[in-house]
Amino acid sequence: MQADVDDRRRINNDAPSALWSRRAQGLWLAALGVVLLGGFLAWQHFYPVTAADGWTYRVYLDGIPQVSALAKDRDGALYISKELGNERGLLFRRAASGSLSQAVVGLSKPDGLVAFHDGIAIAQEGGDLPVLWLHDGQTEALFQGRSVEGLASDGRYLYAIEDRPGDGRLLRFDPLTRVLTVLRSGLSEGEGVAVCPDGRLFYTEKGKRWVKRWQADGADVLVLEQLNAPGFLMCNEEGLWITEDATHRARLLLLDRTGSLQTILRGLRSGQTVLPLAPGRLLLAEQGRGRILEVERLPAASR
């Protein structure tokens, strides 16, 4: 009988110790999870940008928080937008000499720029707001949009796309007649639009992770899918350029003229506008790191 009592006492004495051991183990595992998660997030944050073989990049401008859209005017000045909402958005002008000045203030998420009719067209993603036209130091409202993000122009028309959850539109504006035409509706987070030199029109739906080519008969062609938050588009003689607007490990892609998809840069954080400077040379706004990159194809002898 005494032995049974002693056994029960040992069990009762051991129970708090076992409970504490399990709690300590749980706390240790939780702490380890936090450390591993923190390490993973830090690795994601500092994951470097890498260029494909035959390409290189350098930091063109740094220290530009919320940098988004880029465009050049007829004088070669570079326009840079800071995508801030609630009329805090800004448009800067960087002259060929390198001097920087404010061109437009009081914008709401200016997320699209394009050279247009001897000026710069400006989109505002921050609500039901007009697309503006900056020319001769003045701004003029072209048409009313709803969360307009991407802009493109073929020299005659201005194309725009709305970033809305399921009811966005692809638009075409004729500055001569002032007529705004809806080319496509019901889009999910439309962000990018581009017109190629041959007249083909492309657009992205970030919500559906794809790029499509617009067709007048309504049967738009799926060009790319399963992308990581496809955002901005630009089309030139080299092909269709696509940036991914993901916060980590985004890419700069080129769908070349042969139909081959090339990854030019990896490790971007929220890639935005691509602006061509010359064949094989372009600027890229990287919002997540607050900077602009200059991307360039290496000469054949250097590859």
Automatic annotation (TrEMBL):
<dbReference type="InterPro" id="IPR018119">
    <property type="entry name" value="Strictosidine_synth_cons-reg"/>
</dbReference>
<feature type="transmembrane region" description="Helical">
    <location>
        <begin position="26"/>
        <end position="43"/>
    </location>
</feature>
<protein>
    <recommendedName>
        <fullName>Strictosidine synthase conserved region domain-containing protein</fullName>
    </recommendedName>
</protein>
<keyword id="KW-0812">Transmembrane</keyword>
<keyword id="KW-1133">Transmembrane helix</keyword>
<dbReference type="InterPro" id="IPR011042">
    <property type="entry name" value="6-blade_b-propeller_TolB-like"/>
</dbReference>
<feature type="domain" description="Strictosidine synthase conserved region">
    <location>
        <begin position="157"/>
        <end position="202"/>
    </location>
</feature>
<keyword id="KW-0472">Membrane</keyword>
<dbReference type="Pfam" id="PF03088">
    <property type="entry name" value="Str_synth"/>
</dbReference>
